[in-house]
């Protein structure tokens, strides 16, 4: 069973203890007003618990029968019997979890197919742009700025310090060091496309790497930010090369 399904079920069972309300802008003035108009602390807490549960159900795209949900809440709060054996209740929840898992698998498969088609089209188009070099591996490199051409490129054993921005082909930024300090990591400790690209650079070089999915995170992706079969775009500036990691 997938981690997301188990996370959802655990959240439903532990919602009262979690105390986690996602901070987000709301365009529902009526909901905000309802929260503000509660007269007691207990009423406010009940509202927040209900809101939290609703967020989690909505995030899982689950059709909610509010009448049945309220009946279950009322039955438990009034101390009445559940009305079914524990084994039956467990069977129902397991069947529901399997349904969610099957839906999730189907959605991921469809997303993987879409990302593959979109990625292939993007790579084909990008390969025709001025300054883009396509390597035998499929990695595409475009030099933005040249650094010290006399310097030695990193090897698999090197540690590098870089500034970078990682984007999807639709322009969505999923990671960036810009605005902070350069990041240090081992050349051989990142995705294959990044390793190959870094080994072609010298200190001061700034390049754009367009990395096919098979040189990135492949069919697994790195959900939720990077979907399956995603082509990745990295803008990388090589700041430093060393033979050991800083302490």
Could you report the average pLDDT, rounded to the nearest whole number?
87
What is the element string, with H for helices and E for strands? HHHHHEEEEEHEE
Low-confidence stretches: 12-27
**CATH topology heading of the largest domain:** Chitinase A, domain 3
Tell me the span between the first and last alpha carbons.
Answer: 40 Å
Largest sheet: 7 strands, antiparallel
Number of H/I helices: 6
CATH class (first level) name of the largest domain: Alpha Beta
Beta-strand level of the residues, as a percent range?
Answer: 15-25%
Number of strands: 7
Q: What class, by secondary structure content?
A: alpha+beta
What share of the residues lie within helices? 40-55%
What is the correct CATH architecture of the largest domain?
A: Roll
Shape call: elongated
Number of domains: 2
What value does the Rg take, in angstroms?
25 Å
